[in-house]
Design brief:
Chain lengths: 340, 118
């Protein structure tokens, strides 16, 4: 496939993405806002805008706040979701992750707009907001609509996978004697800003949980749970031990889990690549690449890339990737030669 | 860190492991203050007994290249920096010896004799 056809594919995928992730949500938002504005004369001045325990209304506000919220959310999200597409396409990256993001944007937009519009529609002709019906039917409608929209948005986008400008350099293999054993070990730590972000969020969630608990809000349990989740994430995904030996490539968190392994027999090709976490994987940590690769992406820079027998690719960012790749490649070649 | 052993060779395994670590230190791939991998991991990777690796670590400690600390494991000392200073000299010497037709073993024996003479 020539470079220009890949380029065209990425452009085609980006156009489809923008259609489902931005333009359709803009249209849906506009319809929702117009409908709600048209209904304003039939609404009571104050309507229910929040539902709580048992699905009954427990928060009220002016009728015009709903179309306003819908406009801000709808247009805001549509603009937000456009960003990754532009960035990815410019880097020449595309894949199932972007396709999913596009479907997600469409689904979320339809869900939110349906929810707000349905709750407003249910209050047309009411004299008193306290008579507003429960949230269940609008929620079910919105959830169903969002799901269907998301699925359709997935299939409206083409299946394109492109790895941008990353060149995978094949490794210079180590010369191994017939009986010789070799092992390569390294420790890799997540980039400092990413660690700060994860730990920061954990602390923020914990602080919010305390505040919620003190003010008697029922949501403190949710935030406590989120704090625990992020603390676990921080503990398990910040430092990994990487090892290449006769059993294959093993990557293990210092917390014990998670672990990833590529058995030596599974290794088809080993190379060294340069990883840009944001552009290629959408962030740091245990990631699905935009182009379908699976990676442990802890920092930008050199990484060992292994192509597996199943066709899937595993990437792990680690210092001195060239030596690690050379060891793995030599061991795999020797195993393959011995087997044949 | 890269460790290589040849079970066929005459040299004992623990010595080969220590040689590997020393070579990495000399090449600057392992720096002062760095922790060496856990003996358990090296043993599993090379398919040797963990005590073999521990013996190598103890020899390196006796040499002054690593410090064994409770809870921290084997930490590389500043001697690694001196070793890597020597690295370029060693490479030049090896190149000259090879050009002169001297085998690696013969060169090593010569260096050992000269060092012992002091």
């Amino acid at each position: 496939m020539t470079a220009s056809t890949v380029h065209d594919d990425v452009r085609r995928a980006r156009r489809a993405y923008l259609m489902v992730a931005t333009w359709i949500p803009v249209a849906v938002t506009t319809i929702a806002v117009l409908l709600m504005l048209a209904w304003l004369p039939e609404m009571p001045e104050t309507i229910a805008i929040h539902w709580g325990e048992g699905g009954q209304p427990d928060g009220f506000g002016p009728a015009w706040s709903s179309p306003l919220l819908a406009a801000v959310l709808g247009y805001g999200l549509a603009a937000l979701f456009a960003g990754p597409a532009v960035a990815a396409a410019r880097a020449g990256e595309w894949g199932p992750t972007m396709r999913f993001l596009g479907a997600l944007s469409c689904g979320i937009s339809v869900f939110l707009m349906t929810l707000v519009t349905a709750t407003v529609a249910a209050q047309r002709g009411l004299a008193d907001a306290a008579d507003a019906p429960a949230i269940f039917l609008p929620f079910a409608l919105a959830a169903g609509g969002g799901l269907v929209a998301g699925v359709i948005a997935w299939f409206l986008q083409p299946r394109v996978a492109a790895s941008g400008g990353t060149v995978a350099t094949p490794v210079e293999t180590l010369r191994l004697g017939p009986g010789e054993q070799a092992v390569w070990l390294r420790t890799v730590t997540m980039a400092r800003p990413a660690i700060v972000a994860v730990v920061g969020v954990a602390l923020l969630m914990a602080a919010l949980a305390v505040v919620m608990g003190l003010t008697g809000s029922g949501l403190w349990g949710l935030f406590a749970g989120l704090a625990v989740l992020f603390a676990v994430l921080a503990a398990t995904t910040c430092v990994f031990r990487v090892r290449a030996d006769a059993a294959g490539l093993h990557v293990r968190s210092i917390a014990g889990v998670p672990r990833f392994a590529v058995p030596l027999d599974d290794v088809v090709a080993v190379s060294v690549v340069t990883v840009q976490p944001m552009a290629q994987f959408g962030g740091w940590g245990i990631r699905a690449g935009i182009d379908g690769r699976f990676g442990l992406v802890l920092r930008a820079g050199d990484a060992i890339q292994v192509e597996r027998r199943s066709g899937r690719t595993f990437v792990v960012t680690v210092d001195d990737a060239a030596t690690g790749a050379a060891v793995l490649s030599a061991l795999a070649a020797r195993r393959a030669a011995a087997g044949s | 860190m890269l460790l290589r052993i040849d079970p066929e060779s005459d040299a004992p395994l623990f010595a080969q492991i220590a040689d590997s670590v020393r070579a990495d230190a000399a090449a600057g791939r392992v720096k002062p203050g760095e922790r060496l991998p856990a003996a358990r991991d090296i043993a599993a990777g090379l398919g040797v007994n963990v005590h073999t690796v521990l013996r190598a670590y103890q020899d390196l400690r006796d040499e002054g290249l690593v410090e064994l600390r409770r809870g921290r494991g084997a930490v590389v000392t500043a001697q690694a920096a001196s070793l890597s200073d020597l690295h370029n000299d060693i490479r030049a010497l090896v190149a000259r010896a090879r050009a002169a037709g001297l085998s690696a073993d013969a060169l090593a024996a010569l260096v050992k004799e000269t060092a012992r003479d002091r």
